[in-house]
Amino acid sequence: MSRDRKAGGNERPQNDTTPAPAPEAVPAVDSRLIAREEGVRGYLNEFRRKMRSGELGSLPVVIAVIIIWTVFGSLDSTFLSAQNLSDLSQQIVGTGMIAVGIVFVLLLGEIDLSVGSVSGLCAAIFAVLNVNNGMNQWLAVLVAVAGGAAVGLIQGFFFAKVGVPAFVVTLAGNLAWNGLMLQVLGSTGTVNIPSDTIVAEMYSTIFHSPATAYITAAVGVGLFLLASLLDARRRQAARVPFRPIAEIVLRTVVIAAIAFVAAYILNQYQGLPLALLIFLILLVVLDFVLRRTRYGRQIFAVGGNIEGARRAGISVPFVRMSVFTIAGTMAAVGGLFLAGQIQSASQTSGGGNLLMNVIAAAVIGGTSLFGGRGSVWSALLGALVIGSIQSGMNIMGVSNAVQFMITGSVLLAAVVVDSLSRRSQKAAGRA
Q: Hey, which residues does 206 pair with through a beta bridge?
């Protein structure tokens, strides 16, 4: 027996059931690393791979903006004038603010149908407290915004704790908050907001000095470059894929070109609108919250896989309630800007096609209706698409009926693109 074992050398006895050692696993290679090693050719291959797998990002909405501006600019040169583009940058702020809150809700795969009524209610609260009752305007603003946050928290509680579907809660809220707005406004139904109030000035103030717009563009580009370098350094230290310096520089050059061209166009008319500046600052802050904080990752986790998020120790009720609170807060802020735009709060505030426009802006901008995918910049891009269509058709003298049909068609097209994108990602095993 000993000779058999010696002769067999490393051979295992036939009755030995010990499993053979598994071959060493080959580590997966990140496709981004391959692209960066291959240079320009690698990036082109990576771009084609993303297109085939449905990872479209902001590409469809950027193409849509280019097409819309090209069509309306060719039909009437007034559309691309510095004055019209400057007015457009102000007009999209109110809708865009509310759409930011909708983005947070959509990231959970839910919907909020009450944001229009909430915006009107908060505008009415400010107008009645400040104009009718003489309350300090800053305190009135805080009360109005706090009111929006409270409404969102209440709706979030019924959704997250009681278990009522978000669609039903916010549909009921749409009716209830609209009724409360009418009650707050009283028998007159309209409260005019003086032009020297903070709400009106936040919308109408324009920095006429050309240096302001250029300095703002330079600061924005500098912050983007700094954030990109710090992120690359952090990723490199963690030994995960990071963007090389050349790619960061290229991205910064593109951002700088967009920022300084926008500053130049604004300076050709009057200058940088304060409303646009506030909007951009809020987008930067909320984008940081979503992409760079633990709370932001929790939102994406709950929206992507609620059961997986719960098993990972994430407090799903807290995330849900907080997201609806953010939506109510942004609805209040957007409502104040819309009230400042028309300098009044009335029975029609928050009504009309506002709800449709804010949801359309979030979806058209690239936020998925199915949850787990999107960005706060979707609100800016989507609002720009909606605003451009409305501005161009107003210049062309198109009726509201046709505008509604076209906007609805664009919304449907965005949802179709989102659905096809998700289907492609599932087929590629990336969803």
A: 273
Whether 35 and 46 have beta carbons less than 8 Å apart is answered as yes
**CA nearest 360: which of 102, 74, 49?**
102
**List of long-range contacts for 412-421, beta carbons under 8 Å, 24+ apart:** 414/60, 414/61, 414/360, 414/363, 414/364, 415/363, 415/369, 417/56, 417/60, 418/363, 418/368, 418/369, 418/370, 420/54, 421/54, 421/55, 421/56
Query: Is residue 13 packed enough to be buried (19+ CB in 10 Å), middle (13-18) or exposed (0-12)?
Result: exposed
The backbone torsions φ and ψ at residue 70, rounded to the nearest 5 degrees and listed phi first, read -65, -45
Under 8 Å CB-to-CB from 360, ≥6 apart: which residues? 382, 386, 407, 410, 411, 414
Non-local CB neighbours of 329 within 8 Å, separated by 6+ positions: 101, 145, 148, 149, 152
- pLDDT digits 0-9 by tens, 22-36: 555 444 444 555 555
Q: How far apart are CA 303 and CA 311, in angstroms?
A: 14
Distance CA 367, CA 52 (A): 19
Torsion-angle region of residue 153: left (phi > 0), alpha (psi -120 to 50) or beta? alpha
* pLDDT at 52 > cutoff 70: no
Tokens of 248: 């960061």
Mean pLDDT of all residues in 364-371: 84
User: pTM for the complete prediction?
Assistant: 0.85
Residues 351 and 128: beta-carbon distance below 8 Å: no
Of 44-53, 80-89, 269-278, the poorest mean pLDDT is in: 44-53
Where do the DSSP E strands lie in 81-233? 190-192, 206-207
HSE-CB at 288 with a 13 A cutoff on CA atoms is 10
The domain at 56-198+296-427 falls in which architecture? Orthogonal Bundle (1.10)
Which residues, in sequence order, are CB contacts of 65 under 8 Å at separation 6+?
Answer: 381, 384, 385, 388
Match 């209040």 to its residue by tokens. 332
Query: What one-letter code names the amino acid at 429?
Result: G
Are 273 and 337 spatial neighbours (Cβ–Cβ below 8 Å)? no
> Shortest CA distance to 157 belongs to which of 168, 169, 146?
169
Confidence of residue 136 (pLDDT cuts 50, 70, 90): very high
Identify the residue whose tokens are 């939102």. Answer: 299
